[in-house]
Amino acid sequence: MMKMKIQSMQDLKKEMLSVARGEGKAPADATQVSFESVEAVIRLLTPENRFLLATIDQKKPASVADLAKLVQRAEPNVSRTLGKLEALGFVRLRQGAGKAKIPEVAIHHLTVDMDICAQHDRVAVA
Question: Was domain 34-106 assigned CATH 1.10.10.10?
Fold first, then answer.
């Protein structure tokens, strides 16, 4: 299971500057993907993006171009969305024939562990 952390940009900047100045060590979770808020995760997982992920998972397109046809969206739009989802670990883009990239869903489940009285949420994905 991969974990993502919720961390404000202000806290992330403070943490990075502290490490850069040698005032502290990088935290153990420094390499985790982070979101500014749980809401940011929800904004990423729009119905359109979830449909895109479901189509990848169910139809197994052979390329981004094939996926764009399946979801009836322009290929550059689908490529941009896949880039965001890949950067955050939701999708893998495997090398296909020629220049083709084969999209694959990397995360199928997402769990939010939230203390409603604190701001130290964790997002766990499997």
Answer: yes
